[in-house]
Amino acid sequence: MKKELAGIRISRVDSRGRGRGTYTLPDGQERSVAVTGALPGDLVDVRVRRRKAGTILGDILALHESACSRREPRCSHFGSCGGCTLQDISYADQLLLKQATVEAAFREAELDELAEAVPGMAPILASPREFGYRNKLEFSFGAERWLDEEEILRAGEITDRRGLGFHAPGRFDRVLDLEECHLQPHPSEAIRSFLGDLAREAGYTFYHAREHRGLLRLLIIRTALTGDLMVTIMFGEDEPRQREEILQALGQAFPEITSLNYVINTSLNDSIYPHRVVLWRGEPGITEKCGDLLLGIHPKAFYQTNPEQALRLYQSALALAQLKPQDLLFDLYSGIGSIALSAAPRVGRVVGIESVDDAVQAARENARRNGIGNASFEAGEVEKVLPQVIEREGVPRVVMVDPPRAGMHPAARTALAGLLPETIVYISCNPRTQAADLGAFLRDYGIEHIQPVDMFPQTRHVENIVLLRRR
């Protein structure tokens, strides 16, 4: 296999957002080429990474022609950071690309019903903001930061390899030391910059991912439309004196922090969920606004990262459901209750099911906070809890589904398909797994509407809503 391929014309995108073209072998056989970062209409030279299931996988080595006009990226880290990979094209072109990604996911599923539904897909719903839309960012501390080619050539002069930012693409052990990030509103950048400077000047150690040592491990910043601000610092070592110095300095520099927390995590995994979150100062959570709802957000809570677009996502999903005042509604994978509580004023009763205990407690608190008495929330895995809820509540007319990126558990899929509610509204942040899940319902359901939603401008990720109606 050649290491480089010249003159590959990109004709489409696949369900992973990669550009697709064709390479002709010397014997005349054709091979599909999937190129990360390439767009339809591009003429590119490709650096080959590997071959998988007959497809050549690679990256752009050189761009010769493009159907999309490239623009100057706003961020100086574009090309090094693996996050905002679409900054060099207009937002209008980003939306067209994401629409094509959803279409590809449904065609690649190789189900006639899904392919037939593609021409009727609604235009993608654009985000109100292109930048500054994220309410949550996680910055990693790294003992060995990512070096660019120029730095490598003079590596002998570098005495401090510490970095605070995002992991370099494909590297768990290398952190890209950020100078700027445009995804989260003020004061996110100021907090990250302050903490990085403080740590370097004081000589605090950054976490070494290979050797599993180091004081500072993770910085989590959450902002809310209400103006509330939450900061959580994850420490890789339990050093009370240094921890107090850091928290004291941060609290004094940013008195507007609503909730300042810390976590001690000496395990091999960066996840916050198994560990106790300690409130150091302020409130135990922050308040987010979702339409008329006020939602309590705790440090471990999941909530859509684009809150303004989240409201529009929920409004679109609920409009498609055509809810009635007497309806019983089930909300599967209900999280902190945002969808269920948004729907509650429109129905007789709503029941949410969620596997994360903290999220269930938060959902119950949010129901009380908003004076909603016709919503209840059950803790447990959907596939196990659903039969019990049906026995107690009866069969719902409408079911809302918003599972994790991996999609529905097979047993949950089977249970829901056997339930046969009149309407299913399936929300997904991964159209590929959504398309695979939908196959379980097509015997009894028809697809009435597909609505892509852009929750993540500048990235290739896309959310999608599908309305299923029982035949």
Question: Can you give a write-up of this model?
Answer:
The protein has helices at residues 91-108, 112-117, 149-153, 188-202, 240-253, 307-321, 338-343, 357-369, 382-393, 410-419, 431-438; strands spanning 4-9, 12-13, 19-24, 30-36, 43-52, 55-65, 136-142, 163-167, 175-177, 216-223, 229-235, 259-264, 277-282, 286-290, 293-297, 328-332, 349-354, 375-379, 398-401, 423-428, 445-453, 463-470. The longest helix has 18 residues, at 91-108. The chain is 26% helix and 29% strand. The strands form four sheets. It has a seven-stranded mixed β-sheet with strand order 9-8-7-10-11-12-13. The chain has a seven-stranded mixed β-sheet with strand order 18-17-16-19-20-22-21, with helices on both faces. The protein contains eleven helices and 22 strands. The protein is an alpha/beta fold and 471 residues long. The protein folds into three domains: 4-67, Nucleic acid-binding proteins (OB fold (Dihydrolipoamide Acetyltransferase, E2P)), CATH 2.40.50.140; 112-129 and 302-470, Rossmann fold (3-Layer(aba) Sandwich); 136-290, OB fold (Dihydrolipoamide Acetyltransferase, E2P). Helix 9 packs parallel to helix 10. Pfam families: tRNA_U5-meth_tr (PF05958). S-adenosyl-L-methionine binds at residues 304, 333, 354, 402. It comes from Alkalispirochaeta sphaeroplastigenens. This is TRAM domain-containing protein. Keywords: Methyltransferase, S-adenosyl-L-methionine, Transferase.
Estimate the helix proportion, in percent: 25-40%
CATH topology call of the largest domain: Rossmann fold
Tell me what the CATH architecture of the largest domain is: 3-Layer(aba) Sandwich
Which structural class best describes the helix and strand composition? Answer: alpha/beta
Pfam families: tRNA_U5-meth_tr
Active site: 429
Domain TRAM: 1-62
GO molecular function, one term: rRNA (uridine-C5-)-methyltransferase activity
